[in-house]
Specification:
The protein has about 90 residues and is mainly alpha-helical. It has one domain. Helix 2 runs antiparallel to helix 3. It starts with 7 loop residues before the first helix and ends in a 6-residue tail after the last helix.
Length: about 90
Amino acid sequence: MTLKSRSIGERLSRAKSPEVRREIMADWIKDWERDQLAIVAELNQALDQRDWSQVSRGAGQLRAVTQERLGALQRILQRLAGEAPA
């Protein structure tokens, strides 16, 4: 298993120092932003072309990426607050 395929929680748990954890979080945020912006660009292109099936697929992708990342963010914040993830 490569480092990239591990969850953000696993990577943070394995990090030895606050600096490494900050770097992991910064990379995770950049990846999230890149993924979101790529999907938005695809949606804009599909809208320009009036390709409604691609708009529908893009909206589904955006929803999936957003739900996945927000779920991970919620678990990270619960861990930082000392709560057990739900």
